[in-house]
Amino acid sequence: MDRLTHFMQHHHGHCDEAFATAEADAHRGDWSACAASLARFRADLLGHLAVEEERIFPAFEASTGNTAGPTRVMRSEHEEMRELLGWLDEALAGRNAVAFADAAETLLILLQQHNMKEENILYPMCDRILGGDEVAFKQLMGEVEQALMEVAHG
User: Fold this and answer.
1) Neighbours of 145 (CB within 10 A)
2) Helix runs in 29-153, H state only
3) Domain segments of the chain: what residues?
4) Crossing angle for the helix pair 3-28 and 31-51, nearest 10 degrees?
5) C-alpha distance from residue 148 to each of 48, 72, 151 (Å)
6) What residues contact 78, with CB distance under 8 A and at least 6 apart?
7) Is the whole model's pTM more than 0.85, yes or no?
8) What is the spatial distance between Cα 54 and Cα 151, in angstroms, rounded to a whole number?
9) What is the pLDDT of residues 25-80, one digit of tens each?
């Protein structure tokens, strides 16, 4: 069973596409379009992080009794992502393509490394551990899917 892994990996791809659009808009100097695409990316990314921090991680931690392991690392990286979103905002406000590209490159590297850890380690662990209780897992997946759907249509 890799239901969570597959679903969240798909959402990573969705976030990546939104981020690439914002980068392309900034590269072209289309700051109005960049503002809109960056807002979309922000909503997608922050919604994704919230789903992990408010639903997936607590379920994993409750099931394993471990709050000092992979979820702590992921939360720390989430904070770095939020900080980098602020850097993108500053670059956008200043119409600074170089600063935007620098912040975007840093965020991209962090996202790629972070997503690989989640997709190859944490999510499969969640599928394996949480999937043992089919009723609870089905409820969790319903909550995850609903929350991300609300972000997508927000």
Assistant:
1) 14
2) 31-51, 57-64, 70-93, 97-117, 123-130, 134-152
3) 3-152
4) 160
5) 7, 22, 5
6) 49, 52, 53
7) yes
8) 14
9) 999 999 999 999 999 999 999 999 999 999 999 999 999 998 888 999 999 999 99
